[in-house]
Design brief:
It contains 9 helices and 14 strands. The strands form 3 sheets. The protein has a 7-stranded antiparallel β-sheet with strand order 2-6-7-1-5-4-3. Helix 5 packs across helix 8.
Length: about 425
């Protein structure tokens, strides 16, 4: 932060690329080359002795590989260097206990992407109200959808500029994600009220002040019927495929259509989450959420052969609903959006927030009569109201009495296990 009260902020902006079939194939080739480069680096790492695992030796290895293997040459040199730096950073994250050890990247389970590390190589220009042009190495000038003002041309300087980009492919095609660095005024402390948030499946977001945020189905009835038809067709074609037989072109086309519909549903969910979290961050100064362990909540109830689980199908449906709501992504959005506006996000312990009465503070069995109704069975209380709003009030009360699980937003409550970095690999 500078003396004038300015703070440097970095964010990403994703835009759709308009690629011709030829350029799309070139982008696919570059992405496959980048994935192959990663796998070759991983094989080299496991093969070499520890004293040889250095950045200089790895750089020499990938330079030689680009000479020996023809199809690796389609990947720009700077993108290959980014793969090398990303691989070594993955090992550093592993040694520091922040992530698992890097592994091979499979062809069909890996997101296809190509990095453009230098922002000056992009040469971005706006040619239309809705379209811009960007230079992509070894592909040339490509149009992209202009949906956000970017610091280009005379607006770009050392404080406000695009530092790089990444090409990413999903089920709906290729996109470009710009890395933007800008200098903004430090936000003033948010003077808005405090609010507690309870997340759920039937009611996605319920606030302690009685407001709720709901959404409908992400796909229309016609799209849902089409998705079900495609899934049944894929299952039928897969059933008639012999073991070890390659997937037919028709089956691959069916898989692509299924992925496209699911990607469309995910985009609509993301749009709803962005709009909802932005509205909450603008209105409230302190946002209190539950410290949920979602991974434990979505574990299967199948059990073992000796001790089989109960209500396995019902639990599987609940797990799908919880995963579909993406509570963790909602909290992540609230974390950076509240901080950007001068607010605070706090996490409190989650147990018994739905069973405790927010009026008397007692947990009386049977108080939650159904999903939406809470009637306190305490003879001295008898308070009644919406069950989700009651949970939101309990969440806010835990913060006000100082019972905070995670004081700073995004800070893990579990200390990462210390790992010693090998001296030969530093």
């Amino acid at each position: 932060m500078s003396e004038q009260g300015l703070v440097q902020r970095q964010f990403g902006h994703r835009a759709r690329l308009a690629l011709s079939p030829v350029l799309s194939l070139k982008a696919d080739d570059q992405a496959h080359a980048a994935r192959t480069m990663w796998n070759l680096l991983h094989a080299w790492w496991e093969m070499m002795p520890k004293e040889k695992r250095t950045l200089g030796h790895a750089d020499a290895a990938i330079r030689q590989a680009r000479k020996d293997i023809d199809f690796l040459a389609v990947l720009p040199a700077q993108a290959a260097q980014t793969v090398l730096k990303t691989y070594f950073q993955a090992w550093k994250n592993c040694w520091d206990g922040r992530a698992d050890a890097p592994n091979f990247k499979a062809r069909f389970r890996t997101v296809m992407s190509v990095d453009i590390p230098q922002g000056r190589d992009l040469n971005i220009t706006r040619v239309h109200r809705r379209w811009g042009m960007v230079n992509i190495p070894k592909m040339g000038r490509v149009r992209f959808r202009w949906t956000k003002d970017l610091p280009v041309g005379k607006q770009a300087n050392t404080d406000n500029r695009i530092t790089g980009a990444r090409l990413v492919k999903d089920a709906l095609g290729w996109h470009i994600a710009f890395r933007v660095q800008t200098l903004e005024a430090k936000p003033e402390p948010h003077t808005g009220p405090e609010v507690g948030i309870d997340v759920g499946v039937t009611v996605p977001i319920a606030l302690s002040d009685g407001q709720t945020y709901d959404h409908g189905e992400w796909l229309t009835e016609r799209e849902q019927a089409k998705l079900l038809h495609l899934e049944r067709r894929a299952a039928q074609r897969k059933l008639h495929r012999k073991p070890g037989e390659r997937t037919s072109r028709r089956l691959k086309n069916t898989y692509d259509q299924i992925a496209g519909l699911r990607a469309k549903a995910k985009r609509r969910a993301l749009d709803w989450q962005h709009q909802t979290t932005t509205a909450i961050a603008k209105k409230y100064g302190t946002v209190v959420v539950e410290a949920l362990r979602i991974t434990n909540m979505v574990k299967s109830a199948r059990g073992t052969v000796d001790q089989p689980g109960k209500n396995v199908a019902q639990k599987a449906g609940l797990n799908r609903s919880i995963s579909g709501e993406a509570w963790g992504r909602t909290v992540t959005m609230l974390t950076y959006k509240t901080a950007h506006r001068g607010g605070t996000l706090v996490k409190v312990p989650a147990p018994h927030t739905s069973q405790r009465c927010s009026a008397c503070g007692f947990i009386t069995p049977g108080s939650r009569e159904d999903q939406a109704t809470f009637v306190c069975k305490n003879p001295d209380c008898g308070w009644s109201g919406n069950a989700d709003h009651n949970a939101g009030r309990n969440v806010l009360h835990l913060y006000r009495i100082g019972l905070v699980a995670i004081p700073a937003a995004g800070r893990s409550s579990r200390q990462a296990r210390k790992r010693v970095k090998p001296a030969t690999a530093r």
